[in-house]
# Entry
Amino acid sequence: MFTRAAIFLLLAAGCLADTMLPSGKRLVRRIKHHKESNDGEESWQGEEQGAAGSTRRAGWPPAAGQGQGEVEGGAHGKLVRKKKKILVVPSYNDKLGNQFNHHADFTPTYNQSNMRPPQGYAAQGLLRPESSGFMNTQLPQPPQPSYNRQETVPAKPDEAKRFLSLFTLVSFPNDVCVSTTGQNGTCFSRQDCTSQGGTAAGTCASGFGVCCLVTATCGGSTAVNGTFFTNLGYPSTFDSVGSCQLTVNKCKENVCQLRLDIENMVLAQPETTDHKCESDQFIVTGGAPVPAICGTNTGAHMYVDMGLSTNSPIVLTVVTAGPSFARSFSIKVSQIECDSLAKAGTGCLQYFTGVSGNFFSFNYNDGTGLQLSDTDYTICVRMERNFCGIQYTACPDAANNPPQSFSITGGTPRLGSLVGTQCSTDWLTIPCATNTNDPNAQSGTPVVCVDRLCGQVFNSATTQANSPNVPVYSFSKPFNVYVHTDSNEGSSNPTETANRGFCLNFIQQPCTASQG
# Structure
């Protein structure tokens, strides 16, 4: 038998087990709680009554910050704003009308034996039976916004544009690319490549384009940048008499130059007396004068002026005649716009860029060809930033002994190096050339710089036959070399025989205070 005080202490201590009230006794306890925290302010107060035989969950009153417990009575909810925060504080009424306020997490449970559910809760479907015989109800939740699933979401034009641009606005320049065949092609979209009669050979532009090989042959015309002009059946050779011609039109109105990269050219050699191209010739017409060439010229290139008119066609012609010979050619035709950095200087038939490089005369063929007659053209080297001079050296020559990587004039007997006015038939002009790293003075005769160089030894001063080649410098700008050969070799007096032409390496020289 428990006394009223004992029961009160037992409940106040929050026993850990359910407690049965003695038969015929009623418990009344006044409850008051108040707490302030960062989450707001919570409080409850009132009385708790229980009839004999009723039960409640141990742990009442709940600890601070908790809302667990059971009590008999009605229930409803109200919003209380505390410290700019909204707390849902449910309010509970027992049978006698006493009110209990507590934190929103508090969930009341009702005893079917002596309590009726709050009015309206059963109609709302908030009661559900439990195995223990009690019926639990959840506090009503705040009203949720309703959504119409058929409602149209407004479009976002800016995002749509960005999304579509990934597919409709992808563009890339038609640059040079390396095809799967090893040839240099032009980067096009697959559709453009097909429409221009090209063949896709690999990808480019990060996979957005294809490396397109556009080929044209005898009797054709093209306005496609990067077209290959080849013989019929290339890479097979041909042996016939005829003329193979390609007409090149501008792909854009602002094209000023063509660059002809001779990726392969094997034609008949010049005749052996005066080294004239009599059997086979490669001829360029329609622009500035270009020397006709023959023999082996693989790896050489030419720049051809197309003029400023809307369309100034350039005609490329390969003429073959004479003895039986296995011939083949493949020439890449690139079009260069007037404002392009790749545009060669005015009057440059050949144009080189970079601090160092190499150039050779037509039909040099690693020292096994013959120097061609009747040529006049300019080789240009672009002056790079912070470089004020250039050094030229003769290439190694494994085909001849003594070396003939510089053999412009001479024959039998061999000549050494000739300079200045001694060069009257064939020569190279290197402005103010010296054999020392000095803009004006040099070692030997003459002691000052010279312009013309010829003979069979590369030197800017006069030397004897079989003397070694030496470096030659020039600090005159621009860095140009002028080539001249006349129409006579074997028929000249004295006779000139077996001249190979030239092959020179170049390295630009840094600026110094005296040179700058």
